[in-house]
Specification:
Layout lengths: L2 E6 L2 E5 L4 E3 L4 E2 L3 E5 L5 E7 L7 E4 L2 E2 L2 H18 L5 E7 L9 H16 L6 H11 L3 H4 L4 E4 L10 E3 L6 E6 L9 H11 L6 H18 L2 H20 L10 H15 L4 E4 L6 E5 L4 H8 L4 E5 L6 E5 L1
Parallel strand pairs: 7-9
Antiparallel strand pairs: 1-6, 1-16, 2-5, 3-4, 5-10, 6-9, 7-8, 10-11, 12-14, 12-15, 13-14
The structure holds ligand DP6.
Ligand DP6 binds next to helix 5.
């Protein structure tokens, strides 16, 4: 095969990944759990280019340079080393989510890239292998290989750190884009700074593993209330941890906080809704499907609102 196209969807963590114990292999300090969405996918084509001198990367029709090209080329180097190839590639990617705004574009991006590159270079990987490979591009991408709810095991090394599906009740997400701009500090840089400077960093892996164990049992029991409570608590703990770095990093803006308040108010009125946010100002509200429309309508004053359902795992669309 000389070209392959894959499509992957973003995921939003209900138990967050924040911090690496191995930066080269991207092994996390703790496991995490997420919901893969059915909107805002990334579609990526990898074409082998034997005549080219170097890799090229085009994102949304624009030739990429700098850090994003460097990350893609480094990932292709990994794929080539596994495939025993030296052939450069042309990568073309279309991403429907605003890049770098904390809506998991690196997760869908590296899940699609890993799957398309593995096919183009002839690596024969199952879902676990693809999840491990995607992880090397961006940790959260390991989870976008998997449909619906996915747990990414911290593992005890490269081979055991992958994501797999978990049974869970039907859940929807209301995405509230309060600001589509680029975030000030990338999650990669912020994770490192948190680990090096926060006095709370030591407690984080243990409490996250505890939250994860509770979350998996709540998912298996189909207990939406427990799932929601753990989701919101764990998100706010992550943001508290990030804010305690030196110099501090604050992703949540007054508008994000207003969404968390509006969600708490909905709960007081008996609506089961719980908020979370990744490394950016945008907020995602976890709801049961019957409440999605009403919660979305309530959120409209804060920004662009979209309803997402559980989505599919990564798909190989075509190859030649
Ligand atoms: C806040 O997966 O983008 O979204 O592994 O350095 O590429 P790298 O980080 P990335 O971090 C995601 C952080 C998060 C939480 C989560 O998705 O679990």
């Amino acid at each position: 095969m000389t070209a392959a196209t894959a499509r992957a969807f973003p995921n939003i963590a209900l138990v967050k990944y924040w911090g690496k114990r191995d930066e080269e292999l991207i092994l996390p300090v703790a496991g995490s759990l997420s919901l893969t969405l059915d909107i805002l996918p990334t579609t990526t084509t990898v074409s082998l280019a034997p005549e080219a001198e170097a890799d090229r990367f085009e994102l949304n029709g624009r030739e990429a340079t700098g850090e994003s090209l460097r990350r893609v080329a480094a990932f292709l180097d990994l794929v080539r080393s596994l495939a025993g190839s030296q052939t450069p590639a042309f990568v073309r990617s279309r991403n429907e989510a605003p890049t770098g705004a904390g809506l998991a574009s690196s997760a869908s991006g590296f899940a699609a890239l890993a799957t398309a590159a593995a096919a183009a270079y002839g690596l024969d990987l199952d879902a676990r292998g693809l999840s491990r490979l995607a992880r090397r591009g961006s940790g959260s991408a390991s989870r976008s290989i998997v449909p619906g709810v996915a747990v990414w095991h911290a593992g005890d090394g490269d081979e055991t750190s992958f994501a797999e599906a978990v049974a869970a009740p039907e859940m929807h997400m209301v995405i509230v884009t309060v600001d589509a701009g680029e975030k000030p500090v990338s999650s990669r840089v912020a994770m490192r700074r948190t680990a090096l400077t926060s006095p709370f960093a030591e407690a984080w892996p243990r409490t996250t593993e505890e939250s994860l164990a509770e979350m998996i049992s709540a998912c298996e029991a189909g207990d939406f209330t427990r799932i929601g409570r753990i989701t919101e608590t764990h998100a706010l703990r992550m943001h508290a941890l990030i804010q305690s770095a030196d110099p501090p990093i604050r992703y949540l803006t007054p508008r994000s906080v207003a969404v968390f308040d509006a969600v708490a108010e909905l709960r007081e009125r008996g609506v089961e809704a719980y908020a979370t946010a990744d490394a950016g100002p945008n907020v995602v509200v976890l709801v049961q499907s019957a409440d999605a429309e009403a919660v979305a309508a309530r959120m409209e004053e804060f920004g662009r609102v979209q309803i997402a359902k559980p989505g599919p795992g990564v798909e190989l669309l075509e190859g030649d």
